[in-house]
Amino acid sequence: MLLAAVCALPVLASYLAYYVWQPSGRANYGELIGPSPLPRTALPPAADQQPLAAADFDGLWTLLYAGPAECAAACAEALHTLRQVRLAQGKDSRRIGRVWLQTGAGNAATLPAEDADGLRIGRLEAGTAQAWLAALPDAASGAHIYLIDPLGNAMMRFPPRADAARMVKDLQRLLKYSALGR
Question: Matching InterPro entries, A to Z (predicted)?
Answer without folding.
Answer: Thioredoxin-like_sf
